[in-house]
Amino acid sequence: MNILMIAGEVAPYAKTGGLGEVMAALPKAVHRLGHDVRVYMPLYGAIDRQKLAFVPIGKTLQLNVGGERTPINFSASILAQEVPIYFLESEKYFPPDKATIYDPKSGNLPFYAFNLSVFRLLETLDWVPDIIHVHDWHAGLIPNIIKNLPVNSPFAGIATVETIHNSAYQSLANQWKIPDEERDTGKGLPPTELAKVNYINFLKRGIANADIVTTVSEQYAKDLLIPATSHGLYDVLKPRARTFFGIRNGVDYRQWNPMFDEHLPVNYDIEILHRKYDNKRALQHRLKLPIDDQIPILGMNSRITEQKGFSLVFEIFERLMKKGVQLVVVGDSTSEPYKRFLTEKMKQYPGQVAYRAYSEELGSLVYAGSDIFMMPSLFEPMGVGQLYSLRYGTIPVVRRTGGLADTISDYNQHNRTGNGFVFDEYTGDALAEALDRALELWDQKALWWNLMVRAMALSYSWEIPAKKYVRIYRAAIKEHCGAAWAIPKKW
Ligand code: GLC
Q1: Which residues pair with residue 164 across a beta bridge?
Q2: How far is the CA of 216 from the centre of ligand 1 (A)?
Q3: Which of 26, 327, 377, 474 has the fewest Cβ atoms surrounding its Cβ within 10 A?
Q4: Which residues contact 192 (CB under 8 A, 6 or more apart)?
Q5: Are the CB atoms for 53 and 36 separated by under 8 Å?
Q6: Spatial distance between the Cα atoms of 303 and 300, rounded to a whole number of angstroms
Q7: Which ligand 1 atom is at minimum distance from the Cα of 403?
Q8: Ligand 1 centre from 339 Cα, in Å?
Q9: Phi then psi for 396, rounded to 5 degrees?
Q10: What pLDDT is recorded for position 192?
Q11: What is the reported pLDDT for 98?
């Protein structure tokens, strides 16, 4: 099959979170199953044009955006040495001197233009894919536009798949500030007047119109079909129940592997697990914490947002400090109160708390050097941190939600099953209780070692999910032309 995947971020070009990582791995995994996979994204100002090579393709075109004509260009590069990736270049919508990827101040317009540009790209390439697979809200208008094309359009036969990575983000303009009665219902075609572009709910339109909709874990697919946890998408998802599936993300173990991770001062694996503690010491040294194997390190490495459960950690902060643990938080944040809280605590407990902005190197060191990895998420479509930490022998403590529920099972001290510590209620007490159980086991060194070894041996590769996507693509092609197909809900 010929498959075009479209996303707002693809690592290493641009990444704010898990979406960027999935986009670095999934196209490659599907390509390896024998399909022609290509990727499309905007060429943000933030992308390093020196470090990554780009070749111009085609000539400058005029894109008509709500009656305004703007020059655009396309360029190409190779993702992970095997998948072609194309970029939209536009001085107007993605200015080369702009450092942020997603600027809420710019509203929806840049991505509205990005959606319209897709068809110009296909013309330039003289290529009509069988499938366009859009990820999150960024290209949600594509299924909507294709569904409404006249039958004689060269693009009318393209089947579409929409994957929801996070229901909280539905467009760049803030959807929650729009009064209820003016919110986008997702019906019909998106408006063409520029004044209305900020009212468009891209994700909703993708969901309402794609031939098949998927999300990134089975449990999150269930969570989204409950009004309270659907971020307002319940009404548009419910009628899709027959054509809505959960497929968990995988991990690229060539990259996320303590034996090969080049960011680690000392590589290790199950057979030489004692070397994990060299990384623990390196982490303590690097963050100016007391260097001591006998102090447990609780690590967190994620976007510092409400979603990731930081309010629970803050709620039990003093209790945690009394336990004598070291707490390491690595991540970027746009929340001033969260940043202030962590900065103040770091000053108050310099020997126990370290908080730093995200870097790839520190990220890896947190997975390798921590004893326990905390992910008390309010909601979690899939989550990758819990899977990386398993491979690095760092035991996850998670809330039972979304992909965390699908991948982490609670440790059972009687039959020694489970790969982490799980709690249900979204409360500080529930988190504290799970942490207590983890710390208690951590004190029993032989049992903890045993748990680490079991965690490291687990595998969540891309192989199975990639095959599932291929089945979804075949089904989408049938769905698009009204033919029958069947995929069992348990597969
Ligand atoms: C989003 C979700 C995360 C998921 C990732 C990739 O970042 O918050 O749970 O793993 O997308 O699908």
Answers
A1: 215
A2: 7
A3: 474
A4: 66, 67
A5: no
A6: 10
A7: 9
A8: 22
A9: -80, 140
A10: 87
A11: 93
pLDDT digits over 276-296, tens only? 999 999 999 999 999 999 999
476 torsion bin: left (phi>0), alpha (psi -120 to 50), beta (else): alpha
* Ligand 1 neighbour 217 (Cβ under 6 A): no
Task: Report d(CA 375, CA 128) in Å as an integer.
Answer: 42
DSSP characters for 398-414?
EESSHHHHHH--B-BTT
pLDDT in tens, 303-331: 999 999 999 999 999 999 999 999 999 99
Q: Whose CA is nearest to atom 3 of ligand 1?
A: 383
Any ligand 1 atom below 6 A from CB of 405? no
Tokens of 135: 């990820």
User: What ranges do the domains of the chain cover?
Assistant: 2-250+463-481, 270-457
CB atoms within 10 A of CB 179: 6
| Any atom of ligand 1 within 6 Å of the Cβ of 384 | yes
Quick one: which of 464, 397, 380, 400 has its CA closest to 436?
397
Rounded Cα–Cα distance for residues 369 and 335 (Å): 27
Tokens of 76: 């190409």
Token output for 163? 């994957």
Sequence-ordered strand ranges (E) for 352-392? 353-356, 372-375
Is residue 381 in contact with ligand 1, taking CB distance under 6 Å? yes
Give residue-wise pLDDT tens across range 65-82.
999 999 999 999 999 889
Specify the CATH number of the domain 270-457.
3.40.50.2000
159, two tokens? 């089947």
Confirm or reject: Cβ of 236 under 6 Å from ligand 1: no
| CATH entry 1.20.1420.30 includes domain 2-250+463-481 | no
Domains 2-250+463-481 and 270-457 are alike in CATH topology: yes
Pairing state between β 55-65 and 68-79: antiparallel
